[in-house]
Amino acid sequence: MLLFIEQVLNGLQLGVMLFLMASGLTLVFGIMGLINLAHGSLYMVGAYVAATVTLHTDSFLLGLAAALPAAAAVGAVIESGIMRRLYDRDHLDQVLATFGLILFFNDLMVILWGRQPLFMNVPEALSGTVELVPGAPYPIYRLVIIAVGLLVAVGLWALITKTRLGMRIRAGASDRETADALGVNIGLLYTGVFTLGAALAGLAGAMAGPLLAVEAGMGESILILTFVVVVIGGIGSVRGALAGAILVGLVDTLGRAFLPDVLRMVTDQATADGAGSSLAAMSIYILMAAVLVWRPKGLFPAHG
Amino acid sequence: MASPMRRPLSVRARLGVHLAGLLVLALLPPLLTLIGEPFYVTLATRMLILALAAVSLDLILGYGGMVSFGHAAFVGVGGYVTGILAHHAFMGEPLALFGLAVPGMNEALVVWPLAMAVSALAALVIGVLSLRTGGVHFIMITLAFAQMLYFLMVSLEAYGGDDGLMLWGRNTLAGADVLGNRTLFYYLCLGLLAAVLLALRRLVDSRFGLVLQGARQNERRMRALGFPVTRYRLAAFTLAGAIAGLAGALSVNHAEFASPTLLHWTHSGELLVIVILGGMGTLVGPVLGALAFVGLEEALSGLMEHWRVVFGPLLILVVLFARSGLHGWLIGRRPMGRTRP
C-alpha cells in the first residue's frame, strides 16, 4: 500500500512535468496551428542552462532563474526567425522544418557541452524526505515539482480566463482575422504565446535536471510522451493537457511498477516479467489507442 | 514560395531520363570496381534500400496525402521478422508464438514475403486506428505508435533488447548462399526497387490511385461520389507498410544486424526528409532524395563530426524555399496540391 502511494506520487510528478510541456505545445498548436517538434529542444536548452549555472554557482535558484529566460529567448528567436514563416504552411512543412531544428540543437549541445551527460544534485534545501503518510518517506524535491506544476496550471487557467491578455489569446485562437481587424497585434501575440510555451518547457527541463541525466537528445523522449498527452487530452485544450498529462503520468508509472506483479497472478514468473515489462512500455500507447477509438478528437476537444 | 521550376518534360523525354538513371545505377558496380572504390557498392546498396522505403512512404504521403511520421516502424518490423527467424534458424530451436512452434528460417523466398506480411499487418492495425483522425492528429499518432513498437523491440531481451540482434550471415536465396556477394546483392536490391517503382507507377495511374489522389485533393467530393475514402487510404497505408517491411528485410540482410534503432523516430523523420528532398508525389523523386541524402550525409560527416548542425538548417532552407524537390528541379512538374488539411 505504501509502495502504491509512492508510485502514485511519482506518477503525479511525471504528470505535471508532462503538463508543463504539453500546455505550451497545445497552446501553440491551438492558437497558431503550428506543430512544433522542437519543443523538446527548448526543454533541453532549459536543462543545460540550469545545470551549467547551478554547477558554477552552487545555487539551483540561480540556475532556474537563468534557464527560464534562456529558453524563452531561444523560443522568441526561433519564432521570429523561422516559425513565423510556417504558420500558413501545411503541417508537413512544419514537421520538416522543426525536425531540422532538432537536429541542429542536438548537435549544437554536443559541440558546446560535449557528449558526456551533465549531472545535477537536488538542491540542498530540498534534498530531504518527508513522511506524508507515516512510514513512507518521500523526497521533498519531487513534491515541490508537483506543487510548481499545479501552480502553473492554476496560473495558466487564470491568465487565459481572467485577464485581458487571455481574452486576446482566446480571440486569436478562435478567429485570427477578426481579432486582427479589432486591433489585436496578432504578430506580437503569437510571439508572446510561443515565448510563454518556451519558458514553460525550459522550466520543465530545469526541474528535470536533478532527476535525469542532462544530455543531447533528452528532449525527444519527453516530446513524444507529450504528443501522446496532447492527443489524449485534445489538441488545443489546456484543460485536456492537464487531464491527459496526469493520466499518462499515472498509467506509465503504475504500469511499470505493478504490471509484472499483476501478470504473475495469472501466469508463471518468467512469462509475467517479460510480458509485463513489454506491456508496461506500451501501456500509454495502448491507452492512447483506446481513447482514439472512444473519442477520436481527445477527451476535451478544443472548440473551433 | 514558388521556386523556379522547369516546364514539365514530355512523357517520352521523361521516360528517357528515367531509363538513363536506371542505366547509371546498373553500371555503377563495374564503374566503382574500375576506379578502385568497390566499398562504395555497399554504400550504394544502402541508398537503394533507403530509396525503397522512401518510395513506399511517397505512395501514402505524396499520393494519399497522409503525413505518416512512423514509417520506420514498418521497416523495423520487417527487419526484426528477418532477424528473429534467422536467429532461431541458427540456434536450431523453434520460435514459440501463441502456442505455435514456428521453425527458424533463413530462406529469402520465404522470409521476405513473411516480413512483408507481418509489416502489412502492423500497418493495417495502426492504420485502422490512426485513420480515424486526420491532419496533425495523424502525424502525432503515427509517431506515437511507431514509438510503441520501438519500445516493444527494446523490451525483447531474448533478441538483444537495446543492443540489437547480430546475424550469422545473410539469408539464402532459393537454397543458395549467394547474398553475401556484394555485387549480386546490389543488383537484387536494384531489381526489387525497379519492380516496385513500375508496379507503383501502374497503381497510381489506376482507378485505385486516382481515387487516392482525388481524396487528397478533395475528400468531401470523393465521399459525395460514393467512394469509401478511408478504406482506400487504409489499403494504401497497408501496402506501403508491406513495401517498407521488404526494405527492412533487405536492410537487416545488408547490415547483418537488427536493432531497435531501425524503428527510431529519427529514421521516420529522415524518410520524410528524403521524400521531400526528392520531390513528393513522383515515386522517382524519393530515389533521387535517397541518393542526395546518403551523399550529403557521407560528404558532411567526412568534413565534420557534428554534420547535423549544418544539415538541420539546410533542411529548414529547403522547406522554406525549395519545395518542389530535386525531381521538380531536374524534370519539372506542376507543384503538388496541399496535404490533407
Q: Would you tell me the overall average pLDDT of chain A? A: 87
What is the CA-atom radius of gyration of chain A, in angstroms? Answer: 20 Å
Order of strands, widest sheet of chain A: 1-2
Oligomer: heterodimer
What does the secondary structure layout of this molecule look like, with pairings?
The complex is a heterodimer of chains A (304) and B (341).
Chain A: H1 2-32, H2 39-57, H3 60-81, H4 91-113, E1 129-133, E2 136-139, H5 140-162, H6 164-174, H7 176-181, H8 186-208, H9 218-233, H10 238-264, H11 269-294
Antiparallel strand pairs in A: 1-2
Chain B: H1 11-34, H2 39-63, H3 72-91, E1 95-97, E2 100-102, H4 108-130, H5 135-154, E3 165-166, H6 182-205, H7 207-217, H8 219-224, H9 229-255, E4 257-258, H10 265-278, H11 284-303, H12 308-321, H13 325-330
Antiparallel strand pairs in B: 1-2, 3-4
What keyword list fits this structure?
A: 304 residues; mainly alpha; 2 strands; B: 341 residues; two-stranded antiparallel ribbon; two-stranded antiparallel sheet; 13 helices; 69% helix; 3% strand; disordered C terminus; transmembrane (chain B); membrane (chain B); Branched-chain amino acid transport system permease protein (chain B); cell membrane (chain B)
Structure description:
The complex is a heterodimer of chains A (304) and B (341). Chain A has 304 residues and is mostly helical. In chain A, 75% of the residues lie in helices and 3% in strands. Chain A has a two-stranded antiparallel sheet. The longest helix of chain A has 31 residues, at 2-32. The radius of gyration of chain A is 20 Å and the shape is globular. The relative contact order of chain A is 0.19. Chain B has 341 residues and is mostly helical. Chain B has a domain at 41-270. Helices cover 69% and strands 3% of the residues of chain B. In chain B, helix 2 (39-63) packs antiparallel against helix 9, helix 2 crosses helix 11 and helix 7 (207-217) packs across helix 9. Chains A and B meet through helix 4, helix 9 and helix 11 of A and helix 5, helix 10 and helix 12 of B.
